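Why should sequence recovery work at all? Because a backbone constrains its sequence more than one might expect. Tight turns favour small or flexible residues, buried strands favour hydrophobic ones, and helices have their own preferences. The token representation captures these environments compactly. In the example below, the structure is given first.
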């Protein structure tokens, strides 16, 4: 009721005013009826009623809330002051918007990737079923998550008792095109229990059920996501019943999922979900369903009522021996078998889903949040300095208010109201800015071949974080100036000439401390920015061992041609020859694995069958080494005489030779590799030695690599990767390759990537850190410079009398200028010392993200200190010159 009266108090006041006026009129009329004159009748009526204004004020106070009323008055007063200082208001709001917006954007991304639950029923009941540790197991893997084989999944499904529902899923990419350039869709392989266990309902049609996931189902129905439905079918309501082409196989669309459901992997969304049983029909000879050593699935379940994670883990551990015994691959022997049988399963929380993005970017985002927080602290220190200066100019006004009886608490509330307005406006524009910044981060981390999906809708955590940051910033830059402004005694502030008195050192103590802290924090951020920028430069300029520019990678898919294995090699060679004849092509070659992508590993043995470690393998054509400009140190390249009928040969890199043979030239030496089940190990003679090259990550040490002739591959697959070296523009080169491939067969599927762009995309994390830390470092340096300039200008203005007296007594202008610069240098020096200590202490938090650079790198420290000192002293030069140019008579006359 009180709140209702409060918000309607103006209407109540108007009603009471009319009632009082009506009462006066009635009383006046009655007095006139008694025989009184009109003026006397009105006067008598007023005496009987009392003071109408006082009555209205009492009624108004009865219908209001004192605290809110005074707060509203303070906010209105603060708004008028800000309107009178538009430059100050603009700088303050812009600084806060940048600081709050950056913090909110990074927190919003952290919230979406790590804190938010999956958009399914009761996500807190979900648990992942996986290995109790990240062990090594032999076989083949596919997808981003692949700890389980289908055989192991089926054993878990049939024997577990901890979950009311359990499902398996795996990631893949489906080609939707029937020829020409590849058109990929993000795919999911799901068991029949996937949607029912998650509690996901369809928007159109139906979802997959256990009846859709039966052995030998061929190509049954698939469910598509709402985003894919809108993108590919324009939201057509008759999409159910239409067909898709998945890797050349037709599949019927049976339903569309809800728009809010993106899958169970945070950071990516699915386009098409197909049942596990259809995997052999769609993947053909590359099917993993029947391979007991094929690792491509992940499993989740919904805990039964009353079951905890600990109980589920204990249950899974108790049945693990039987599960692994029943699913062990037949060819596992010795150590492989013992290791596999010793594994145990456990249950882990999965309510927030799984995420490769989370694992890769959790630490960088947390570090960036800390960096953005430091920038906000610097902005708050800057605003605190400005507020102190504004409070100093209002000393007499505040003194008058105190002398007239205003309480210090009331004045502090009034001064804080201005800060509340600034913080609120900064938070509002920061929240608007955060939306764009967080979307920029997602776009920054997405690539053409690896698009990211992150739900950036604000939830209560993001709103609460923004509100908390706004309140904290208000207290950080507003409370100290308000307390200081009301601390002085009125008699001191009211003394004549107070403004011109010689300033004591303690008068500027807080402002000096704020500037020192700004310089220190700015140095920390500048050092961090230089470390990340120089680390990225080290990676970009690193010699990877092969040519990066001018190399076009063409992924070729021959699945639709249904070529028998014995014809594939000749067909691929014909394609390479066609590409080599394109005008402007300098070299071209075929390889099984892209340099910056998938790879195959194999165990290496010497001729005595002693294990020498794991090496990376690649099947390549003659000319591959020349195409990528890899230095051939000794021996020869592959040639047309290297066939299945000849001695098996290999070209190895320096790391391989050193690991297997130690020092010396490896040409002519031989090694053995672990064989497929049922095959004998084959002996490979080394015919060439090449320079070390990176393989999948510029950060990694040069791995041992063995190149094998593609002509000696017993079972060439239907995929090929062509590397084309040319100085021609990419667009006409791609068109020419499409033309010659189309002439060979219109059913060939193609996908193109520039090798340099692929390598650049592998450095997204480093680019993100270098870009954002560099921006924040420059912003922090700018704020610190502005803060130092403001303090020195304020000090010169407050010491005008002192400077005038010094100059009147004979002080030279240069000595005055040096005095101001010495003060600035002392503040900068103290900040640099504190910042150096802080940077050395905090540097260890970023050490794991640096490449060939130490956190305490002397050159980086020197560069940051020199840059910040130069800029800071340059900012002090103008106040120093202003002090030196002061006219002594003018300064003394003002007092």
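From this structural description, the recovered sequence reads:
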């Amino acid at each position: 009721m009180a709140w209702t009266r409060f918000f309607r108090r103006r209407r109540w006041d108007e009603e009471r005013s009319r009632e009082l006026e009506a009462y006066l009129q009635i009383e006046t009329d009655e007095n006139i009826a008694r025989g009184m004159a009109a003026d006397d009748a009105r006067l008598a009526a007023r005496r009987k009623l009392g003071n109408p204004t006082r009555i209205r004020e009492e009624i108004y106070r009865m219908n209001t809330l004192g605290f809110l009323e005074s707060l509203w008055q303070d906010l209105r007063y603060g708004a008028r002051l800000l309107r009178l200082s538009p430059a100050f208001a603009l700088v303050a709001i812009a600084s806060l918007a940048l600081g709050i917006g950056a913090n909110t954007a990074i927190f919003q991304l952290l919230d979406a990737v790590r804190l938010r639950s999956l958009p399914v029923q009761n996500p807190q009941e979900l648990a992942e079923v996986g290995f109790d540790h990240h062990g090594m197991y032999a076989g083949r893997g596919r997808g981003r998550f692949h700890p389980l084989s289908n055989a192991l999944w089926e054993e878990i499904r049939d024997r577990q008792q901890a979950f009311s529902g359990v499902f398996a899923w795996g990631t893949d990419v489906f080609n939707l095109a029937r020829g020409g350039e590849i058109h990929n869709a993000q795919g999911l392989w799901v068991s029949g229990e996937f949607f029912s266990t998650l509690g996901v309902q369809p928007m159109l049609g139906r979802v997959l059920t256990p009846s859709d996931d039966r052995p030998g189902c061929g190509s049954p129905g698939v469910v598509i996501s709402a985003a894919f439905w809108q993108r590919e079918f324009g939201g057509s309501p008759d999409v159910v019943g239409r067909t898709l082409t998945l890797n050349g196989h037709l599949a019927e669309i049976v339903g569309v999922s809800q728009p809010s459901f993106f899958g169970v992997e945070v950071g990516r969304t699915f386009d098409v979900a197909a049942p596990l049983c259809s995997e052999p029909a769609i993947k053909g000879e590359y099917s993993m369903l029947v391979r007991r050593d094929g690792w491509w699935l992940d499993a989740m379940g919904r805990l039964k009522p009353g079951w905890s994670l600990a109980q589920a883990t204990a249950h899974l551990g108790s049945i693990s021996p039987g599960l692994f015994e029943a699913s062990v691959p037949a060819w596992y022997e010795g150590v492989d078998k013992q290791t596999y049988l010793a594994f145990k399963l456990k249950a882990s929380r999965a309510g927030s889903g799984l995420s490769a993005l989370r694992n890769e970017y959790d630490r960088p985002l947390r570090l960036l949040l800390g960096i953005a927080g430091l920038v906000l602290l610097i902005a708050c220190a800057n605003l605190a300095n400005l507020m102190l200066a504004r409070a100093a100019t209002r000393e007499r006004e505040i003194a008058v208010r105190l002398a007239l009886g205003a309480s210090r608490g009331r004045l502090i509330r009034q001064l804080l109201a201005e800060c509340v307005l600034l913080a609120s406006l900064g938070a509002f524009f920061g929240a608007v800015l955060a939306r764009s910044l967080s979307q920029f981060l997602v776009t920054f981390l997405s690539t053409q071949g690896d698009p990211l999906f992150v739900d950036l809708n604000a939830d209560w955590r993001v709103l609460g974080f923004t509100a908390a940051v706004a309140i904290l910033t208000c207290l950080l830059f507003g409370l100290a100036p308000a307390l200081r402004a009301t601390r002085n005694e009125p008699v001191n502030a009211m003394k004549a000439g107070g403004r011109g008195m010689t300033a004591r050192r303690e008068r500027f103590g807080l402002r000096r401390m704020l500037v020192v802290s700004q310089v220190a924090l700015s140095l920390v951020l500048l050092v961090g920015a230089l470390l990340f920028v120089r680390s990225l430069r080290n990676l970009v300029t690193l010699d990877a061992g092969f040519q990066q520019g001018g190399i076009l990678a063409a992924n070729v898919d021959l699945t639709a041609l249904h070529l028998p294995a014995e014809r594939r090699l000749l067909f691929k060679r014909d394609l390479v020859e066609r590409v080599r004849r394109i005008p402007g092509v300098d070299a071209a070659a075929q390889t099984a694995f892209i340099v910056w992508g998938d790879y195959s590993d194999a165990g290496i043995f010497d001729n005595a069958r002693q294990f020498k470690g794991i090496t990376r393998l690649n099947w390549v054509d003659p000319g591959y080494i020349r195409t990528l400009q890899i230095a051939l140190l000794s021996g020869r390249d592959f040639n047309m005489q290297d066939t299945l009928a000849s001695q098996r040969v290999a070209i190895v890199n320096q790391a391989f030779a050193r690991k297997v043979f130690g020092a010396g030239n490896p040409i002519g030496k031989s090694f053995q590799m672990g064989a497929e089940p049922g095959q004998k190990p084959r002996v490979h003679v080394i015919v060439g030695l090449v320079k070390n090259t990176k393989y999948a990550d510029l950060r990694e040490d040069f791995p041992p690599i063995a190149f094998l002739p593609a002509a000696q591959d017993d079972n060439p697959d239907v995929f090929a990767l062509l590397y084309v070296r040319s100085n021609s523009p990419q667009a006409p080169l791609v068109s020419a390759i499409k033309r010659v491939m189309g002439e060979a067969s219109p059913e060939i599927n193609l996908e193109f990537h520039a090798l340099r762009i692929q390598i650049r995309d592998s450095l997204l994390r480093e680019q993100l850190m270098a870009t954002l830390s560099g921006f924040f470092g420059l912003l922090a340096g700018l704020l610190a410079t502005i803060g130092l300039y403001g303090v020195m200008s304020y000090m010169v203005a407050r010491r005008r009398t002192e400077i005038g007296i010094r100059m009147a007594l004979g002080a030279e202008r240069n000595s005055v200028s040096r005095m101001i610069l010495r003060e600035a240098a002392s503040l900068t020096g103290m900040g640099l010392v504190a910042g150096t200590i802080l940077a050395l202490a905090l540097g260890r938090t970023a050490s794991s993200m640096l490449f060939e650079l130490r956190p305490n790198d002397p050159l980086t420290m020197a560069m940051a200190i020199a840059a910040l000192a130069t800029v800071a002293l340059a900012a002090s030069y103008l106040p120093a010159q202003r002090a030196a140019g002061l006219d002594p008579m003018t300064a003394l006359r003002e007092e």
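A few observations help interpret the result. Residues 496-507 have pLDDT under 50 and may be disordered.
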